[in-house]
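Appendix B. One record, verbatim.
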Amino acid sequence: MSVHVALFHVRTRRQAAAVGYQTLLDGLNASAVAAIERVGWTTSLHAAGEAPEPQLKRASREADVIVLLGGDDIEPLLYGQSDRRPQRTAYQRRADRTQIAVVMEAVRSRRPLLGVCRGMQLLNVALGGTLHQHVGGHRGAGVDPFVATDLKDLDAVSPRLRHPLLCTHHQAVDELGHGLRAIARSRNGVVEAVEHESLPFLGVQWHPEHPSVASDQFTELLRIVHRRGAALNPATTMAAAGPMEVTRPVPSSIDRRATVVRH
């Protein structure tokens, strides 16, 4: 029986000034799709900043595994803070809210979920956690924005994973969301992987879907969450899912239109 993976990314198009950033994300998304298809699973790609929320929720319900891919900064009002970034860029507000809705749908259904980079951060925010709005040393400044991150506890994620772990981000998990625990950190203390104590949720801060490592890293992480979903104890997970309906209310004064973010 084939496994179906629903990939949720931010958007398919941007303004002219952000075309390069969109091209970078498109390459990562294509690599994720190719890695899934190579192992014989099926996949679908959904733009959270463009598709209607009911359509995204339906796609998540029809999937065996949900993946939240990388992308833009998450609006800090969603975790109770003002914008403290040294370089302020616009947010993808619609994508933030619809992807949080997908997370909460996964909580209710106890469906396996993998969060990648922004996806891990968004999982944390959806479950009531907060973010460091700016950290240094985890993003390249040249043509290639990816840098290798060193984890001393990579085996805690999976003993089958190997370096390099390629990342490009300037935000990171701070206070952990409900039920989440940090299982791996970089040498300078940044949370690089989280898992849920009872639900089949896993998040990593690096990009396992990078074309140079996707066949090994991305597929291994997908198998981990899929196996965890198959091994669930219904009584335990029902208790975990029950109280987590809404985490942080969306302020009514926020403009819900999608905006463009440039990194």
